[in-house]
Design brief:
five-stranded antiparallel beta sheet; 4 helices
Length: about 170
């Protein structure tokens, strides 16, 4: 494991200096899901939830969350994102969210993609909690990242376990 970069030689937290790093195209993809009652998922799929278009509102919330990651996470660099895209899929008893973030920059966009997924899932919970307080947010994870000195990285295929590995062969 590499050294933890958010600590200086004295062990104090600091924001990593990325000023000397070259600008490159960077992409990160994250996912997560929210489990719920079948009736709740059916309402979301039908678009007849009394609070409105749950998936549409969650998509906008996720985009807004990605744009604010640098404000929410103390040592995260604020980035001028060039793209944030969210895919939301309502299944029989869940909604799956996948976010893709891109930037031309000196640091990666993993935190932005993870924040986008988390905020979208929290928005779904907020909009549906009156009918289903037992919803479960789960499996929020980075699926892949590209760009920068470390190149590309892929999570292991999801076999129901949260563990991930490095490069996909």
């Amino acid at each position: 494991m590499d050294d933890l970069t958010h600590f200086d030689a004295a062990g104090q937290a600091h924001m990593v200096d990325v000023g000397a790093k070259p600008v490159s195209h960077r992409v990160a993809v994250a996912e997560g899901r929210i489990g719920m009652l079948r009736e709740t998922a059916a309402r979301i799929r039908a678009g007849d939830h009394h609070k409105g278009d749950v998936l549409g509102v969650a998509r906008i919330a996720g985009i807004m969350g990605a744009k604010r990651a640098g404000e929410l996470i103390p040592l995260c660099h604020p980035l001028g994102l060039s793209r944030v895209a969210l895919e939301l899929e309502a299944g029989e008893d869940h909604v799956r969210v996948q976010a893709t973030c891109e930037v031309q920059g000196q640091t990666g966009v993993e935190m932005e993609a993870l924040t986008a997924v988390s905020v979208a899932l929290l928005t779904i919970y907020d909009m549906c909690k009156a009918v289903d307080r037992g919803m479960r947010i789960e499996g929020v994870r980075l699926l892949e990242k590209h760009g920068g000195r470390s190149g590309s990285w892929f999570a292991a295929p999801n076999d129901g376990k949260p563990e991930m590995t490095g490069e996909r062969k």
